[in-house]
Amino acid sequence: MAAASTSFHICRRFHYNSNLLPRRENSFPERVKASPTRSIITASMRARRPQNVPGDFFVDHTCIDCDTCRWMASENFTRVDDMSAVFKQPSCEEERLRALQALISCPTNSIHTEKPAHDILEVQKTFPIPIDEHTMPGVYHCGYHSEKSFGAASYLIVRDEGNILVDSPRYTERLANNLKMLGGARYMFLTHRDDVADHERWSNHLGCERILHSLEVDHSTTAIEMKLEGSGPWSLGDDIALGSVCLLYKPFKVLFTGDHFAMSEFGWSIFERYNKLSVPKQLNSVKLMLELDFEWILPGHGRRTKFSDAEEKNSSIRAFLETKMQLS
Description:
By secondary structure, this protein is α+β, with helices and mostly antiparallel strands.
């Protein structure tokens, strides 16, 4: 793998341990990373939560509070008592489409309709979903979030040099066929160990080379084809720069941050309760983002963010850093 041809600064490794569950932090839901697998699901857990408004769509008691439906269909889903719930039923075709896309993407199949959705097959064809065809054509949200990755989002970058999957969606034949229609994937860039999900099935099906930092490799990822060493930067050609937990797509100024830095419902977050190395060092790495030229943040967990320009991006990051420094 070639060294990056331009200056690209991303932090050194920071390890996130999903088995650590310290006190609640009001920057990201507590339940998201509690466990990638759960015990027996009972019929009562699949029952409609009373916090849902009456109507067709509802959320059951198996919700892990991953926030997926709340940012995919914010007109209809909200957070009530540490889980998602429907606060307004879809009132138009656009809202229904987004609600069904959220239903399909829910990692725990916790969203349902009282009546079988007659249009569900058509909605399945909409994946992967273009994020913004005007400002970054060829960049897609894969949907089909996986419980194995605690509900993290994954993305597809379509490019002439070979498509790139960023982190792993839940494997389904329907999504696999849709991705093949867009050219499949040459690489699968895995930001960190928590969000690898069905990486092996995707690699076998699409024939893509997987990329992961060597310090993130465990028993489930020993067969990864490309293991990054050191603190980078690295590149996949002139348009793609790799950081140890981030990927910068230069043509459209998009930074894929994994779980390193993202906007939650409550503001910016570095998911610090999963950092078992050094929060100050992670904050220093966030500071280095001030030097990067990007306008979009597409995270694994958290909400996508669009900045109007570099000044807004830097002002927002500086304000976050100043607040964290004052609290430390």
